[in-house]
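Q: Could you fold this chain for me?
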Amino acid sequence: MSSYLKTQETNEDVLVFLNSITDDDQKRDVGEILEMMKSITGLEPKLWGTKMVGFGKYSYK
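A: Sure. Below is the predicted structure, expressed as structure tokens.
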């Protein structure tokens, strides 16, 4: 049985996705979290699937 990731990293623009949030409070919170995560990880965000933002790739065995 071969294994594969169901959720794949995409080349979609994370900011376009995040700017589609319509609730102003959520949009502000997401912006703050995005900057925090970039600072902590030192990595740029990537969109995984259609709605998941991640920072880096990790393999768990």
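A (continued): Residues 24-41 form the longest helix (18 residues).
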